[in-house]
Specification:
By secondary structure, the protein is mainly α. Helices cover 58% and strands 0% of the residues. It has one domain: Four Helix Bundle (Hemerythrin (Met), subunit A), CATH 1.20.120.330.
Length: 132
Amino acid sequence: MPDSAIAKEWMRIARMDFSSAEYLQGHRPLPTEIICYHCQQAAEKAIKAILSYHEANIPHIHDLTKLLAAAARHEDSLQSLFPQANRLTNYATFTRYPGDIEITEDDMKTALSYANVNMPGRNVHRDRTNGA
């Protein structure tokens, strides 16, 4: 039986990360690294919501491509999200250490759009989890 309560909680937290990323766009100087980090986190938690919903093992990793591969075993439609997941994965670690990469405003805008698309749990299970 699917675990919609845990999936809802994962999605609640994913939405908070994504909302934080959107909110931070109004700050100056523009915190591109932090916004990209929140985008990665939102996508990660949304994928973990799907895994939770299907009562699958949720690995303690931040690699979205690996998480998405696990989720795609349950929902084939997720296969199309691998390019976005691959790009967002870098923001899990690169944004936490100074000097690793330079993140531009264009990178940030791409991350926001990818996170929005890469949060499959926000729509895929809406009916099954009553709004998750």
